[in-house]
Specification:
The chain is an alpha+beta fold. It contains four helices and six strands. Helices cover about 25% and strands about 25% of the residues. Strands 2-1-5-4-3-6 form a six-stranded antiparallel sheet, sandwiched between helices. The termini are close together.
């Protein structure tokens, strides 16, 4: 993994500044071009962005489970989704594509997804996520950190389910490791 190339590709995609900060921290954890170990990720290093993070366990081509849903995921769903099967709470028509995207990231890429969605208030908003893999464990599970730039407004802070919750990004980019 060439961290300079990945950084430059992310910059060229114009990712949101808050997502860029998380990605740059993740890139800084790489040693000798290897994927970072999940254990070296220090939440304190991204404490101001932590509420937009979620950690997923990915079995390539098989499953995605929510390990740690950050505050934004809990607010988007109006409940805690820790331990849930991410695909089971995804609409049936999007499951294959969602699994393919997470699997591609787990196999050696950074993912950037963008969508235009509507807030509970009726206002449109641009939402972007960055998907960052860690080294897979001996059990074949690859932890994937996802950070979103979405922040709730108004009633969304009080657990009102957001229309953002499970929409699939209409624009998706993979930055493969070379």
């Amino acid at each position: 993994m060439d961290v300079v190339v990945i950084h430059d590709r992310l910059v060229s995609l114009g990712i949101a500044p808050i997502n860029r900060q998380v990605a740059e921290y993740w890139l800084s954890l790489s040693q000798d071009g290897a994927l970072p170990q999940r254990e070296v990720f220090d939440p304190n290093a991204v404490s101001t962005m932590l509420r937009g993070c979620g950690l997923f366990d990915v079995r390539v081509g098989q499953s995605i489970h929510v390990r740690i849903p950050g505050m934004m995921l809990r607010l988007a769903f109006g409940r805690d989704i820790a331990g849930e099967d991410w695909l089971a709470i995804t609409s049936a028509r999007h499951r294959d594509q969602r699994l393919a995207r997470f699997s591609a990231v787990a196999q050696g890429a950074v993912g950037v997804g963008r969508r235009r969605t509507r807030r509970a208030s009726g206002d449109d908003v641009d939402v972007e996520e960055v998907m960052l893999p860690f080294t897979p464990g001996d059990d074949g599970v690859c932890p994937v950190l996802v950070h979103t730039n979405w922040r709730p407004e108004g009633q969304e802070w009080f657990g009102v389910e957001s229309p953002y919750a499970m929409t699939l990004a209409s624009e998706f980019h993979l930055v493969p490791f070379e």
